[in-house]
Amino acid sequence: MNNCGALAILSPESLGKFAPDTAQSLIGLSVNDPRVPTPSFLIEDEKLEKNLERARTRARELGVAFRPHLKTHKSIVIARRQMTSPEGPATVSTLSEARYFAANGVKDMIYAVGIAPQKLAEVARIRALGVDLKIILDSVEAAKAVSDFCREHGTEIPVLLEIDVDGHRSGLAPECDELLQAAKALQDGAGLAGVLTHAGDSYECKSIEAIIAAAEGERAGIVKAAGRLRAAGFEVPIVSVGSSPTLMHSKSESGVTEIRAGVCAFFDLFMTNLGVSKKEDIAGSVLATVIGRQTTKNQLILDSGFLALSRDRGTARQKRDYGYGLVCDAAGEPLDDGRIILAGTNQEHGILTLPGDSSLKLEDFPLGTRLRILPNHACPTAAPYKYMLLVRNGIIIDVLEHVRGWD
Amino acid sequence: MNNCGALAILSPESLGKFAPDTAQSLIGLSVNDPRVPTPSFLIEDEKLEKNLERARTRARELGVAFRPHLKTHKSIVIARRQMTSPEGPATVSTLSEARYFAANGVKDMIYAVGIAPQKLAEVARIRALGVDLKIILDSVEAAKAVSDFCREHGTEIPVLLEIDVDGHRSGLAPECDELLQAAKALQDGAGLAGVLTHAGDSYECKSIEAIIAAAEGERAGIVKAAGRLRAAGFEVPIVSVGSSPTLMHSKSESGVTEIRAGVCAFFDLFMTNLGVSKKEDIAGSVLATVIGRQTTKNQLILDSGFLALSRDRGTARQKRDYGYGLVCDAAGEPLDDGRIILAGTNQEHGILTLPGDSSLKLEDFPLGTRLRILPNHACPTAAPYKYMLLVRNGIIIDVLEHVRGWD
Asked: Which CATH superfamily groups domain B20-44+277-400?
């Protein structure tokens, strides 16, 4: 075992041609320019803006604050366009995001993943920067751990109790005894800031009516939880709900103070299958290059595999299975009336088969042809890229850093 | 649109608590130490060494050179332990890997993804560093593009013709006319260095006998292609085959000069289902923390979701479906005789259900308990981490950088 030298020559050169800063040289180039590397993650600026405005408008119509979930893009540039003020409010999914957005001036955040006791020291460190970072938990055990930490360290950490409205994942049932016990267990610097839920089962809805019902279930559940806490004498300033489907289709958020949503900044094929977006709304895509063909199978081989597109196959259980994504031309227009999907991927290869009756032929795609793939799921697709390229009319207008990792 | 400020305050602090260099402070800590963040990617040093030695031994027994595929770990420290010399030979899947390993002294590499013409400038730039980086292609069109590039730039690029032995993905059929045409189309600085194939369909085999047959098909196909080229007057110095299943089970590599393999450095649940490895051989795992429980559903919630474990569900079509991974204790021992899997994930949440007849109860997992998850597929799981932690007897003995991205 040689520990020496492992990191000795770590440098931008050894790590890549482009870091987010050197990639600024891509601004002004067409997505068809050979200097633009593939695979790259593209964001259509006009679609992004329309999506951001739609979410803000929905929140305004519903009369609640909008606390966007920044996990989809993890970029301060997009966050600033998405949030109602440069200081927030916002939602994050990792402490890495919390630290990054804090360093970029965001001051009101909820870290919306149940807290582990070991992470409290880092939460306190970020809060000491003057950031109101709130945490969530869903048990007496966790409430005691946070209270113990705050007492031992003489610090304050605001806590939202996570509520389970649909059996999706985490949270306390609105009617359970432990809800009140957990609130009581918040002592010393661990203060109850509110309640929070996520109607995650809205992702499984088969109709808009079902999403509307999920939204009402989300609202009713959290309002019930808040009501029981208030009846027991607790103040509950924040009543937070959210998922992209319920934000888009909720009829009322009476009793709710704020709504969170993430993927609606980009949308994707999963959301399109769900009826929450249209294909034309999808702002994020992967730029790829044709690197080969298999004539006997009528197949093209692309340089975008599952690292570039993620292994997400969420559309496999929906009304249309898009494989690993919908194939478009370099301008983002679906090929052959949207009939062509990326059916297979290996780590760095994508494979698409032209339908036998397609108007397109393999010869229409010379080696080096650039295509765009609309992804099944925006969040895991965007995450591994070193930077994201903001595009307008086929020209790169900005290069966006985004944060990654967990610590 | 505000382009300014996007990258202005990009700094280690804004990007995370630990970069690969600052994470060196984790060396010497137990994986149970709260300072070790979760999720983290762990590599068991002894299992890694055994796996590396097994692959080298197999290649030696088969009488061929070993050219490991570095895409699984993308780490120079592991590459140096894996390669037969510090200078190679090696295989890479991105130009980012090629540049990184070149900067770290590796001099003999094959970039084993069909070349796109736009990438030739970067190939030439890396070769100009004194590195023998070879490329692959599978068409006359690509051969002409490389020849044109070499002529225009007065440079040399060695080329291997990719051969398709099993209809898996890319490549020229050993018996096709285009094989000889492509060789003839290599002109000027574009020189034929050999032939290369990957028996990717060996991943779909249902028995060891089927893998043995796939290995023989791989060998026979490439030898046939090399023979036809030689009969036509071409020199074919490199005859390269490889996949982890065929390396492990091949009976003969007569006529082959080298073998490539990647995932056999770590192994994973997919390879275990295939019969190529045992659970005890799996060297890579994800360290996670219990952050909640759902008593009515007998579920634990972990802080490792699909970004930490990848969306890879390859085991879903195999003899045992492991969900998103096999759950082990912090020492890496499968819980409850290997019966507990991570059945569900969201972006940052993992969900496991204890079987009703399990010897384990939710109370055995207090908040903050650390667990390890063996992944379905090592390569996409390891890729997104900022660094990987090398572990021996539960103690972190090294922090490994690895390269990411494509450009």
From this structure: D-serine dehydratase-like domain (2.40.37.20)
